[in-house]
Design brief:
CATH topology of the largest domain: Actin, Chain A, domain 4
CATH architecture of the largest domain: Alpha-Beta Complex
CATH class of the largest domain: Alpha Beta
Largest sheet: 2 strands, antiparallel
CATH superfamily of the largest domain: ATPase, substrate binding domain, subdomain 4
Oligomer: single chain
Radius of gyration: 20 Å
Shape: globular
Number of helices: 5
Helix content: 25-40%
Strand content: 15-25%
Number of domains: 2
Order of helices and strands: EHEHHHEEH
Strand order of the largest sheet: 1-2
Structural class: alpha+beta
Mean pLDDT: 80
Length: 140
């Protein structure tokens, strides 16, 4: 889907340019929305699904471990990051069960924001591995 994000910068305008307000407004930066959402698949969009389902515990665990490795942080200690990973797992599982594909990938930008720098999470999983994680019964 097309569209644009508009990014305005607050700047101090020199006195000689204050007579040209059109010039200032025309400096707004238009960023194509598709570039900001490039790595967000359609199946991940929509209302968050934060319900923890016991039968998906191995999927939650795998995604959390992958995120911890990539971010260098314990994502379960960050409330928002944990919720975003639960949502990712639930939407991935639901989409896979409804419309199977060979593989899935997505990126969660700014998953963890620490003192050092923000950390992004990019994951890739093939359908066979996903099926194994969903088939293992962890309720036992």
């Amino acid at each position: 889907m097309g569209g644009f994000f508009i990014l305005f910068a607050v700047i101090k305008i020199p006195a000689m340019f204050r007579q040209f307000p059109v010039l200032v407004l025309s400096t707004a930066l238009l960023i194509p929305a598709s570039s900001a959402r490039e790595s967000v698949p359609d199946w991940l969009a929509g209302t968050p699904d934060l319900e923890i389902r016991t039968q998906r515990c191995y999927l939650y665990q795998w995604i959390s471990q992958q995120a911890d490795k990539q971010t260098g942080s314990r994502t379960d200690k960050h409330t928002l990051a944990k919720k975003r990973l639960i949502n990712l797992a639930n939407k991935l599982a639901d989409h896979h069960l409804a419309t199977p594909a060979d593989a899935y990938s997505a990126e969660l930008r700014y998953l963890v924001i620490d003192r050092d720098a923000p950390a992004h999470f990019h994951f890739h999983i093939n359908a066979e591995h996903l099926d194994q994680l969903l088939d293992d019964d962890c309720r036992e």
